[in-house]
C-alpha cells in the first residue's frame, strides 16, 4: 500500500512538472489544481516537495514555473537550450510586473540585437528580434551595452556617430552608467531603463535587461528600476546555471 501511494505521488509530481513545462508563463495554484485534478491539500504537499528539491520555482506574480533543476535535466537530454528559452520567462514576468514592454538585448560587434522580448499592448514596441540596430548613441539600451565594452571599441563606434567634438561627453556618460550599474534614458515620450546582466568578472556583460515605457510617471521610475534589477539578477542566475551545465557536459 505504501509503495502504491509513493508511486501515485510520483506520478502526480511528474504531472505538475509536465504541466509547467508546457506553460512558459507559469501557472497559478488554482490552474494547477484543475490541471492535475488533485485536492488543494495534496497539491500543496506536492508543490512544497518540488520547490524544496528545485524542480519548480515561483516567480514574482506568485505563479509556478519549471525550476533550474528541471531545466538542467532538459539540457542534458536535449543537448541545448537557446538563450531565448532561458530568459523568456524572466522577460515576460518583468513586462507583466511593470506593465511596460520588456526585452533582453546583447551587443553584436558594431550593433545590438534583441534576443527576446514581451510587448505590452499599450506600451512601446521594440525592433524585431535579431534585427541589427546600428544607431548606438541615441538609444538607452545601446548605451548601457556600450558602457561595458572595451573602452577603445566604445570610443571608436561613438566617434563614427557623434564626432570627436561630443565624444568626451559620451565617454563620461558611459563611465556614469558603469558606476550606477544601470541607465535611465528619456527619448521623447519613451523612457528606457536598462540593467546589465554580468558575465564573469570585471565589466564583461552578457547583455542588458530593459523596459521601455511611453509617458512613464516619474514617480514610478524607482519602482520600475528595482523590478528591472531583480529581473537582471534572475537572468544572470539562469544563464550561469546553463553555462555550468555546458562546461560539465564538455568535460564528460
Describe the structure in brief.
This protein is about 50% helix and about 20% strand. The chain has helices spanning about 1-20, 30-35, 40-55, 70-80, 85-100, 140-145, 150-160, 165-180, 220-250; strands spanning about 55-60, 65, 100-110, 110-120, 185, 190-200, 205-215.
Q: How is the topology of this model organized?
A:
Layout: H1 2-21, H2 29-36, H3 40-53, E1 56-58, E2 64-66, H4 68-78, H5 83-98, E3 101-108, E4 111-118, H6 140-146, H7 151-162, H8 167-180, E5 183-187, E6 190-198, E7 205-214, H9 221-250
Antiparallel strand pairs: 1-2, 3-4, 3-7, 5-6, 6-7
Helix pairs in contact: 4-9, 5-9
Description of the structure:
Helix content is 52%, strand content 18%. It has helices at residues 2-21, 29-36, 40-53, 68-78, 83-98, 140-146, 151-162, 167-180, 221-250; strands spanning 56-58, 64-66, 101-108, 111-118, 183-187, 190-198, 205-214. The strands form two sheets. Strands 4-3-7-6-5 form a five-stranded antiparallel sheet. The chain is built from nine helices and seven strands. It folds into two domains: 2-78, Orthogonal Bundle (Arc Repressor Mutant, subunit A), CATH 1.10.10.10; 83-250, Beta-Lactamase (2-Layer Sandwich). Strand 5 (183-187) and strand 6 (190-198) form a beta hairpin. By secondary structure, the chain is of the alpha+beta class. The chain starts with a helix and ends with a helix.
